[in-house]
Amino acid sequence: MALLERVRPISLPITWLDRRTMLGILLAALAGAVVLSLTRPPTVVPVLVAGGNLPAGTPLSELDISVRDVSSSVGLVEGDTVGELADWTLRVPLAAGEPISPSLLVPPQVGDSPDALALSLDRSHAVQGNLSQGDLVDVLLTRPSSFDEAPVTELVAAAVYILDVSVGESGFDADRVDVVLAVDGDLAAELANARESGTIDLVRVAP
Prior knowledge:
The protein is of the alpha+beta class. The chain contains 3 helices and 9 strands. The protein folds into 2 domains: 45-106, Type Iii Antifreeze Protein Isoform Hplc 12, CATH 3.90.1210; 109-204. The strands form 3 sheets. Strands 5-8-7-6-9 form a 5-stranded antiparallel sheet. A two-stranded antiparallel sheet has the order 1-2. The protein has a two-stranded antiparallel sheet with strand order 3-4.
C-alpha cells in the first residue's frame, strides 16, 4: 500500500539567506541609481548675453554677443549664435554680461515703423482671427458704392508687421479681432483715414 500512496510535492520555503540576498541586491541597485543621479552633470541650455556694452538700434550681427550656459532659459533667448535674429535690434542698451530676452528685441520690420496703431475688425475681415504676433498683413480698403459707381477696393499698405493680436472669445466681443500694427506717422494717418472711409480687410502675407 505504501507504494501506491500519492507522492506529495515538496515545497521548499525561501530561506532567510535568500531573502537577505534579494534585499541586498535591491538596496545595491537603489544606491547605484542614487549615485548616478548625483554624479550626472546638470542639464544646461545656451543663451545669448551681451559680450560688451551694447547700444540700442544696431543689428545683433554687428554687436558683441556672447553665449552662457544656464540651467533654465525661461524668459531668455536660446542659442549659441544669433542665427535668424541677425537683423533684429535691441530696444534698449545692455551692459556687458546682461542676458538678452525676447522683450528687448525689435524685428527689422519695426525698425522703420516705431509707432503702433490699433484696428478692431470683424473676424470675417481679419482672416477669421487666424493671426499672430509677427505676421505680416496687407491692408485693403473697400469704399462704399455710390449711385453711379460700384464699390472699389484698393491696397492701403503692404506687409505691415503685427505687434499684437487679441481675439474675442465670448459675449459681444466674440466676433471681434483687435490688431496692433507697427506704423510710422504717414502710415498711421493713412490707416486712420481708411478706417473712417470704408471697410478694412487684412490679408495675411504668406511666409
